[in-house]
Amino acid sequence: MSGATTSRIMSPELAKVAERAKRNPSERILALARFIDAPGLAHAFDGLRKNAALGVDGVTVKQYGEELAANLRSLHDRMKAGKYRHQPIRRVHIPKDGGKTRPIGISTTEDKIVQAALRDVLEAVYEQDFLDCSHGFRPGRRAHDAVRGLNREVTAGTASYILEADIVSFFDSIDRTRLMEMLRERISDESLMRLVGKCLHVGILDGDEYSEPEEGTTQGSVLSPLLGNLYLHHVLDMWFEREVKPRMKGSARLIRYCDDFVICFELQADAERVMKALPQRMARYGLTLHPDKTRLLEFRPPTQGGQCGQTFDFLGFTIHWQKTRRGRWRMGCRTRRARIRRLTDGKVMPVGGRASASESR
Question: Is the pTM of this model over 0.85?
Fold first, then answer.
């Protein structure tokens, strides 16, 4: 795993948890909340972006850090006493393709610390469970690793058919009850589970409007990427590995970056079977595939007559065929035109706020 952009240093105590989780993949892990102590909270604070967008209380990371020891001690005491409460999340909207916007939630600095500490603990367990097909928001992995994996399949000739998928409002559609059930398959610590619940069941402040969604996990929070990965690990990754691949007659490979994924097939019949089954699988867990952005296409080099081969989008790139200097066809990547237009038009700021998706964390 190269080019790490999200690598984090794990404490010796959490490293032992990771080793135990790896040795015992079916074991439920006890007594995890104890790792969210003062040192764990301080470590989480150190990982916050210093220019992160502000939550509803307006407290910056710098301001919180001016009395860091006292603030963390107060936070830890409230958590031990069960008095910690997650403050409402401030929602802003950032531009996306087609003139639409994507809602991003911004937590307060203190809530970001709690989310990060909780993520560190859960990550120690689930990094041992997640499959190699999953690349998004994981330590030591980045989007280019997913693109390289796709390129290997294309080069090997096992990506003649591509299932390009798009999940409608993925983070907002996560079934919280099912998510908690998934967590309990590995976590046997109700104190930690209650803390997860507090981070999930939180109000949203969108301008002057306040709401309390009953489903989903806020896109833009520190914890949401891991919870999203966990959800799709059960819904998609394990299903594909255990139930789908053994039934395929040719090669098939899933490549996923959080909720953005493609599936490569060697044979058309295999691709068509999965294309039919995938919407049903998603629906069982409250998820819907976008009818206009989910499609099955043949991805082969253009004919010698110069006919243009099909293209598809993945992780901000348009995947296409291009010729090498020796006249051979290979997979090429170019930045999507819609993304270039947003940058050149200056549409890089959210509507009603200052944060980008990454700055919110």
Answer: yes
